[in-house]
Amino acid sequence: MLNTNSIVAIIILSILAAALIAWIAFKNRKDFKGFLKKKDIVISGKRYGIDALGAMAQGLFCSLLIGTIIDTLGKQFNITFLNSSVATVAGKDYTVGGLASAMSGPAMAIAIAYALHASPLVMFSMATVGFASNALGGAGGPLAVLFVAIIATEFGKFVSKETKVDILITPLVTIGIGIGLSALIAPWLGKGAMKVGDLIMLATELQPFWMGILVSVIVGMALTLPISSAAICAALGLTGLAGGAAVAGCCAQMVGFAVMSFKENRWGGLVSQGLGTSMLQMGNIVKNPRIWIAPTLTSAITGPIATCLFRMEMNGPAVSSGMGTCGMVGPIGVWSGWTNPSATDWIGLALIAIVLPAVICPLINLGLRKLGWVKDGDLKLG
Q1: Contact partners, residue 77, CB within 8 Å, separation at least 6
Q2: Residues 18-47: what's their mean pLDDT?
């Protein structure tokens, strides 16, 4: 919670930053488009919805996700040095994994700035901005980080190297804009994202069959598209049964593409798609969209099986719901919350994550081949 002095400081800093931005804009008014081009400020859906979102997911992976994996391994296998506190900050003890998870805000913001081609001073300033927006955004912090980091980065780039005291001005403007926006909109963005996420999770509990299909198909397709399913799940806080459906959809795409393209891509393709990303097939999908039918139908089948039959839930962080079998993060997230797993739990996880996609997707694709919709070479990776 911000006190009165903090709010006054933020307001003053934001006003000074806005005044400098206005002065630079006025100075370059005659060729403003050229100025933006020189600064590499490109206002587009691809830059913000694909590049920034994808980078944000990588930042999440290198902080919250890897931290959760480290903590899960420590707890499940009783590894002492992973369970031990290595630092105490403000009275709170942190494990190695806990420290990594605590840095998710800065990691996301810096990754976004990197994707937007920010200068070093802007990029390093984003550590503060990311921490603030993630903290003030609460459980929906990732969405707040995405919006705030994009705006703060672009304004930082705007003023970068425009004054003789760049080393002072650029961080002041970037942090001033970032902190000001964080205080103003991060709590609302965070709450809004969590409301949407809560609605999806409630709907999945009430209608596990239809929502199982819907969530599985949408998140699975987002994983293959050049956007970030992990960032979307993190922003919406998708866990529980809805998270389980999301895992099913992502695994259907990754394992499905990996196995059905084995003839063309062999072992290298199996590993790169099954443990990496099905996004590698995006170029082939553009050439022949029908190759996407089999993995998508597979996700529509495995999604409701996960929600209705096995009641599979995401117990780890929401970002894991959108990772699928990438580094086996999705299954690890499901497993992380088990205390006394039954044989049914293990069978269900194995079927949803690997076995069913590996069987159903190639069978559907075989039918598509017989129809002439998919041909040899359509799934070949470059």
Answers
A1: none
A2: 92
